[in-house]
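Fold this sequence, please.
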Amino acid sequence: MEAIPVRVLRNQPGRFEELLARDGTLILNRDGKPFAIAIGVGESTLEATVRLATQIRAQLAVTELRAQSQARGLDKLTPSELEEQIRAARSDRRE
């Protein structure tokens, strides 16, 4: 998978389209650091591609939440401690 500077989009859009058509996926860099992924799609695959991209973002969010939970030691809670935390959170919401 090739990485290109984002300025290629502005300065050489034809080159961007060529690379995307060739590779199917490109990493876009800003200041030498990756910040986005470009994925080639066709009309017939647009909706499915967007749906899958949304699922990927959701899965990444869940993975991040799990890592934060483990870092805080919350993965060690017993079932009764977990239930207590849920009750407290729900009680706070009602107030």
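Helices lie at 7-11, 13-23, 46-71, 79-94. The chain has a mean pLDDT of 93.
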